[in-house]
Amino acid sequence: MKLNRYIDHTILKPVTTLEDIKKLCMEAVEYDFAAVCVPPPFVKLAKTFVGSTPTKVATVTGFPFGYSAIEAKVAETVLAIIDEADELDMVANLLAIRNGDWGYLEKEIATIMPLIRNKQRSIKVIIESGILLEEEIIRCCELYAKYGVDFVKTSTGYAEKGASVEAVALMRKHLPANIHIKASGGVRTFAFAKDLIDAGATRIGTSSGVAIMKESVLAGKKETN
Fold first, then answer.
1. Is 221 assigned a catalytic role?
2. Which of 8, 56, 73, 89 is catalytic?
3. Could you tell me the pLDDT band of residue 225, with boundaries at 50, 70 and 90?
4. What is the spatial distance between Cα 199 and Cα 195, in angstroms, rounded to a whole number?
5. Is the previous residue joined to 64 through a cis bond, with omega within 30 degrees of 0?
6. Do β-strands 35-38 and 56-61 pair in parallel, antiparallel, or remain unpaired?
7. Distance between CA 47 and CA 53 in Å, rounded?
8. What is the 3 state secondary structure string of 20-89?
9. Where's the active site on this chain (predicted)?
10. From CA 154, how far away is CA 86, in angstroms rounded?
């Protein structure tokens, strides 16, 4: 398992600085992480830092609460694509999920998907699994599978509960094999990251990517001793 290729090295704090972005990107390039995930205003800068390396640049839309109007999410999506983001992590309308307004959610994803596919980008839909009922998670999996999203993502990291092994396992059970799972929110250790991957996650969103990689090296040394 090439753990580094599972990691989306992330910083989404509202007080993020230019130096923070540079450090994040340089670490991601050094460790050959799958992607960096940065606030929308920093996408262009991140692209210059990662250059032609395999590390992708991801950003967020509808973040962190998901209740932006569809038109607002469309505008954010278009701007992210113009700025050359490779991957977009979109927060689903959590109000609609909790109120059972699946028609609205379907309209939202049906509106966004053509923008993503026409420009050959990837989309990760964040459902905030830590605050949803099991049946709501399953219904989300069914809806987003129907529209062929690239990933369903557990969490923003801003709710009271982030990723869990149980949620990832449930999502893996109810998603087709071609749709990936990104686990994020509270992933700070190698042991937890490995448990999430074993449960079915194929991406790990974390601000602790470097620490996790260092832990993985130590764990590997212990196994060989």
1. no
2. 89
3. low
4. 6
5. yes
6. parallel
7. 10
8. HHHHHHHHHHHHCCCEEEECHHHHHHHHHHHCCCCCEEEEEECCCCCCCCHHHHHHHHHHHHHCCCCEEE
9. 89, 153, 182
10. 20
Domains of the chain in sequence order: 3-224 (3.20.20.70)
Query: For this structure, is 198 an active site residue?
Result: no
Query: Scanning the structure block, which residue is given the tokens 């040394």?
Result: 221
Contact by Cβ (8 Å): 105, 66: no
Q: What tokens were used for 12?
A: 């989404």
99-133 tens-digit pLDDT: 999 999 999 999 999 999 999 999 999 999 999 99
CA 104 to chain centre: 22
- SS3 readout for 140-205: HHHHHHHCCCCEEECCCCCCCCCCCHHHHHHHHHHCCCCCEEEEECCCCCHHHHHHHHHHCCCEEE
> Tokens 């990104």 identify what position?
182
What SS3 string covers 192-218? Answer: HHHHHHHHCCCEEEECCHHHHHHHHHH
Task: Confirm whether 32 is a catalytic residue.
Answer: no
Active-site residue (options: 47, 73, 124, 182): 182
Angle between helix axes 190-199 and 209-224 (nearest 10 degrees) is 90
Give residue 201's identity as a one-letter amino acid code: A
The tokens describing 148, both together, are 């062929």
Q: What is the mean pLDDT of residues 197-224?
A: 91
Record the pTM: 0.96
